[in-house]
Amino acid sequence: MTSLTQTSALSDSLLDKASWWVARLSSDQLGESDLQAFALWLAESESHKLAYDEIADLWLDLGVVKHLPLNAESVDSSPVNGAVNGKTIDDTALSSSSNVVNLFGETIRGLSSWPKGLALAASVVFAIALMPNLLNNSEPQRFSTAIGELESIDLADGSTITLNTNTRLEVLLSDKQRRITLEHGEAFFEVAKDSNRPFIVESCSSEVQAIGTAFNVHCSLGSSAVAVTEGIVKVTDIMSNRSAENSQTLKMGESIVLQDTGGLMAPDKIDINRIASWRRGELIFSNTRLSDVLDEINRYSNRPIGLGSPELQSIRVTGRFGLEDRALLLKALKRSLSLSSETSEDGTVRLIPIPAG
Description:
Elements: H1 4-8, H2 12-24, H3 32-43, H4 46-62, E1 82-84, E2 87-89, E3 94-95, E4 100-103, E5 106-109, H5 116-130, E6 141-144, E7 151-154, E8 160-163, E9 168-173, E10 178-190, E11 199-203, E12 206-210, E13 214-220, E14 223-230, E15 232-237, E16 247-251, E17 254-258, E18 268-269, E19 282-289, H6 290-297, E20 305-307, E21 316-322, H7 326-337, E22 339-343, E23 349-353
Helix pairs in contact: 2-4, 3-5
């Protein structure tokens, strides 16, 4: 039972939300998505758990649950399923004959008289208590992509990370912060707002901190490139000390590069459409050296395109190139730059000037 001191600190709006959840969990329209949403809401803060406990206890004390649309006597015979941490909770976990809920080898007694939705909710609450890693992982989770692969990851806090080609990172969610370590490669972050848990990305020479925003980080050869598409982030040079002069605020449409030697440069303006255009399967260049263009394109294939002549390096490229068809991409490069190509015996392709005559 929640204490009176705890209850007095709970806002009316929070208690109203808890009441809504109690009613929803007693509905015959309850689905797995409801259980997942309830688990997320419950884990957001301790006050949510206190509010739910208070309302659930109050409804039980008053016998209100007996008059809700779904009660123990009118449970539909169709299965009701939920999932916690990838493990299924079904009708077999709710035993009216034994008057218990069995979950992961643990038992909660006295729940068979509850509506099935409330009993399932109780099992979700119990699972969270048993396994705090359900939504806040005490051990980091590791994700990676191979060359040419892209992967999107939905985090438990509601944020999304999209990994670009040949990328490796680890995610650690705790009660105090959400920390991502980008070991190498590139990722785009869409951050769910949570003012109590800053979202921090450490990468090569930089640390990026955000609350609710969207930004891209590219870590390569010890240097970091950060670009913002939404909101504001603070970028810190971690190769130097973490003083104010070694931090820079970036706004939407701004980017910055941090070299492995340390030191912050002034932010640059950048077209938002170019930031993480790789997520749409294309690369956009504006007055970019051909050598740099090929370096970027070659990240997506085990068969790199080279230059057959040094004087081609400084040719400037402006254009939009698709990543899905490498042959078409090579053709577009040759046509737009008036170049030809040659293929060696080992399959290596090199761009060369068109022969005279």
